[in-house]
Amino acid sequence: MKVKIPSSTSNIGPGFDTLGLALNRYLYISATQRTADAQSLQISVEGYGKEHIATDETNLVYQGMMAVAKRGGTAYRQSLQGIHLQIKNEIPAYGGLGGSGAAIAGGVFLANALLQTKLSREEMLDIAVSLEGHPDNVSAALMGGLTVNCFDNGKLHCRSIKITTRLSVVACSPQFQVLTKQARKILPQEISLKDAVTNIENVASLVAAFIAGDVEALRYTTIDRLHEPYRAALIPGYNDVRKAALDAGALSFNISGAGPTVFSFATKGERKIGEAMVKAFLANGNSSTYEVMTVENDGARVVER
Ligand code: HSE
After folding, report:
1. Which end of the chain is least crowded, N or C, by CB within 10 Å?
2. Are 163 and 297 in contact (CB under 8 A)?
3. Atom of ligand 1 nearest to the CA of 98
4. Sign of the dihedral through C-alpha 241, 276, 147, 195
């Protein structure tokens, strides 16, 4: 059994912990079920960040699988013992492109297919959110498209909007890590009414712009006042990279998720924008790489039975 899980960007400026957008770089996970004499879990990893991906029970794919198996009971848990997982990661691993969300969602999705637990995507999403803590990346990984999430008394409601407008995402990953925990800890617990209203205006208008295919509106609807002004301090050269991307013709500039990856929407000049970002990061002492991606409208899927 082999599954394919999309990467994602999240927040998209004003949609902190609310919006996810699936992208066309993937995590591939193959599972070979245990043989009668298999004793222990085996995990092999290739691709980006393989030296940092755990190959024991703490592996996020395995954690996602176990969360599904635990719901099924002992027999399900036992059937995962001695499983062989092969993980191929195409998602840049410096952080911000939904790598951990894809791993958790991938584990949940794979276990559901393998153990035939017949969970709906919504039920799988609930399990993945309980592990990840917030819904933006895991929802994009499972559902695809632009995901819009909200909680009602702890119950998650997620809608996936399919994006048919031609739109590129130019993402640039500097080669240092920002821990999500750290990037959340620096955020203020209270913001001004003025900033709150700006974010409400922008996130509502951003979703409306995506639905209408109005890419020009991305120029102003992606402005955030809730987290990016604080997180910019964790990304050396943030202002220079932003200016370089916009001067090169980008429609927008945001931190991807909790960073340090940053990204721009664009409809032309993608390479020029990517190269401008890399140059500006370098002028501030950091190497980086860029990727030109598009929106992935399909979420997690089985590619081999
Ligand atoms: N919404 C999350 C954040 C995404 O910005 O902290 C990172 O996992």
Report:
1. C
2. yes
3. 8
4. positive
Residue range 2-162, CATH number: 3.30.230.10
Q: Nearest CA to 201 among 187, 222, 232, 231?
A: 222
Q: How far is CA 270 from CA 11, 96, 141, in A?
A: 21, 19, 24
Q: What are phi and psi of 159, to 5 degrees?
A: -120, 140
Going from N- to C-terminal start, the domains of the chain cover: 2-162, 168-294
DSSP 17: T
288-294 and 301-304 as β-strands: parallel, antiparallel, unpaired?
unpaired
Instruction: Provide the CA 215 distance to its chain's centre, in angstroms.
Output: 21
- For domain 168-294, the CATH architecture is 2-Layer Sandwich (3.30)
pTM of the model: 0.96
8 lines ligand 1 (CB under 6 A): no
Q: Is the CB of 260 under 6 A from ligand 1?
A: no
8 Å CB contact between 64 and 111: yes
Tell me whether residue 36 is exposed, middle or buried, using C-beta atoms within 10 angstroms of its C-beta: 0 to 12, 13 to 18, 19 or more: exposed
Residue-wise pLDDT for 128-185, tens only, equals 999 999 999 999 999 999 999 999 999 999 999 999 999 999 999 999 989 989 999 9
Confidence of residue 36 (pLDDT cuts 50, 70, 90): low
The β-bridge partners of 151 are 156
The per-residue pLDDT for range 223-268, each reduced to its tens digit, is: 999 999 999 999 999 999 999 999 999 999 999 999 999 999 999 9
8, 9, 17: residue to mutate for ligand 1 pocket, most atoms within 8 A of CB: 17
